[in-house]
Amino acid sequence: MKDRDRAHFINNVFPFLAPGTPLREGVDNVLRARTGGLIIVGFSDSVRKIVDGGFQIEADYTPAQLYELAKMDGAIILSKNAQKILFANVQLVPDSKIHSNETGMRHRTAERVAKTTGELVIAISERRNVITLYQTDHRYTLKDMGVILTKANQAIQTLEKYKAVLDQSITNLGALEFENLVTFQDVSQVIHRVEMVLRVKRELITYVHELGNEGRLITMQLNELLNNVEQEAFLLLKDYVNDEQIDASEAFHDLQVLSERKPLNDDMILRLLGKARKKEDQDRTLLPRGYRLLHRIPRLPSSIIDNIVDYFGTLDAFSHASLEELDRVEGIGETRANMVKEGIQRVQEQLFIDRHI
Ligand SMILES: Nc1ncnc2c1ncn2[C@@H]1O[C@H](COP(=O)(O)OP(=O)(O)OP(=O)(O)O)[C@@H](O)[C@H]1O
């Protein structure tokens, strides 16, 4: 429930309430001033019905105005986009039969208004120094920036570890590919590690949204760490999918969606790759097409990589091809044939040095 609530606010509310936004600046000022506050963002008909008293303002929203108006009793109503302050000093009279778990009147009112109107309601506590968000039946207490930053940094450390493990298993797979020793289990192991990395990435993105402009450093670290993970995962699928049944981009999309829900198992991975589950297939060697390793050769355009794989079919075939055979591929002349041959050799040597047995 808590995760669902957090996700709801991060997706729908944080774009205009994250640190660095004018609304957050105003709300933080009210919190610091310890006057308390009750703010409704949106003035729909259902809000109109429960408004009693107060006065109309119709001014452009500024953090300073919000802070001044919060010194008064009652609620403040903002426009849906939080660009205007519409009313202040408003008494709200939601149906008292609506269940509320809150104790104080401000928070009970906030919860009931959110449930009846569906609008975002922000309660800033005078005594407890917390900001609570309500919308429909969702409730979320904003966390202290320090707490979120600590969690985000822990997640970055976890990501670094997972990424190192993933890199190593990709290297090991590459070495096995040159030896024609890859089985389904080897591919599945790499896919599981990609899945773990994607999972931590998703968690980190929620922290980044929650941190707003305080999350810039985390974003930079995240981008640097994940620089090529998605491309590698896509190429891995391109190397191994049963392409008569499944397109690699589709498989990559499915991998991302599935890993959001629950941990992948072997059956799911087999389905992703478009392969049937047959007992005898489990230990059979798989021959990769070689997209992933060809992409490691510097300055080799994707169109040429496609032509090489189309012509030879597998890494095994083109890694043993002579210069003359490589020369026959469309887009490859003598110079490029040399470059490809040397490139493949260099990639192979590096993999054998880096592999961890
Ligand atoms: N129905 C309401 N409409 C508008 N404002 C309200 C309403 N109920 C309470 N408030 C505002 O909340 C203020 C504090 O009420 P109360 O102390 O009972 O709330 P609380 O939930 O305990 O919040 P806090 O933690 O800030 O004390 C009131 O002075 C009033 O400004």
UniProtKB/TrEMBL annotation:
InterPro entries: DisA, DisA_sf, DNA_integrity_DisA_N_sf, DNA_integrity_scan_DisA_link, DNA_integrity_scan_DisA_N, DNA_integrity_scanning_protein, RuvA_2-like. One of its GO terms (molecular function) is adenylate cyclase activity. The lineage of its organism: Bacteria, Bacillati, Bacillota, Bacilli, Bacillales. Residues 7-145 form the DAC domain. SUPFAM superfamilies: RuvA domain 2-like (SSF47781), YojJ-like (SSF143597). Its cofactor is Mg(2+). This is diadenylate cyclase. One of its GO terms (biological process) is DNA repair. It is an enzyme of class 2 (transferase). It catalyses: 2 ATP = 3',3'-c-di-AMP + 2 diphosphate. It comes from Geomicrobium halophilum. The keyword DNA damage applies. Its EC number is 2.7.7.85. Keywords: ATP-binding, DNA damage, DNA repair, DNA-binding, Magnesium, Nucleotide-binding, Nucleotidyltransferase, Transferase. The keyword Transferase applies. It comes from the Bacteria.
